[in-house]
Amino acid sequence: MTDRYAAYTKLKFDYPAPRVLRLTFNRPETFNSVDAETHTQITDVWRDIDRDPDVNAVIVTGTGKAFSAGGDFGMIEDMTGNFDAVMRTWKEAKDLVYNIINCNKPIISAINGPAAGAGLVVGILADVSIAGKAAKIVDGHPRLGVAAGDVAAIIWPLLCGMAKAKYYLLTCKAVSGEEADRIGLVSMCVEDDVLQETALQIATDLASGSQSSIRWTKYSLNNWLRQAGPIFDTSTALEMLGFMGEDVKEGVASHREKRPPEFRKDCPL
Description:
The protein is an alpha/beta fold. It has helices at 36-51, 73-79, 83-102, 117-125, 141-144, 152-160, 162-171, 177-183, 195-207, 211-221, 223-226, 229-242, 247-257, and strands at 11-17, 20-25, 33-34, 57-62, 70-71, 107-111, 114-115, 128-132, 136-137, 175-176, 188-190. It contains 13 helices and eleven strands. InterPro entries: ClpP/crotonase-like_dom_sf (IPR029045), Enoyl-CoA_hyd/isom_CS (IPR018376), Enoyl-CoA_hydra/iso (IPR001753), Enoyl-CoA_hydra_C (IPR014748).
């Protein structure tokens, strides 16, 4: 591995084919949950990938039985009621999405198992998203007591329509790989035993194609996402506002205690 990625100690990198970089979430003991350091690294790495002259395509996947379980409770608890931590995370959350959108290399996600939170940002924003049948895609923000921020508002309605987006984002119900394929939330669903092979084949094809035409097509299509920037910025701001309230404390406690949450019954807005 070149020195370009040496600082990204929370992520695993390899080259499964010429000019194809594979980035792997590598905390299998926590289902590849994202702590504060991992969140920073998964935000910053796309700028280095964008500038890497030796890479034409990127695969993102997770070690073990999960793609990524999202932010860990330690990170969430550190943010709760902490204005400075919330502001730092808000900036990173915005940068993560825009860095992926602006990365000139095509990104292929191989979603193997649960995908949530910051991990799901990468999985669902990928230019080609491939879910295994064991995939379990869930945006659980309201269940945690904060608004659905991260990537939800910028892309779920565009992929699967407003009706499905509202249903899954408001109820926090999980979407299987097959259902995600059916409603258009991912590019395709394949058998789990061919997930990595399929991702590698697509990445290899893209890496060997006309780079100018592939990158310029990605850039043009991603203007659909760029024009939704104000919607996205509002969603992340409201998510972060939630970390300054009481509901998120109950959300985390109920998760830890494995019980239904008891949120306040009203809200002035």
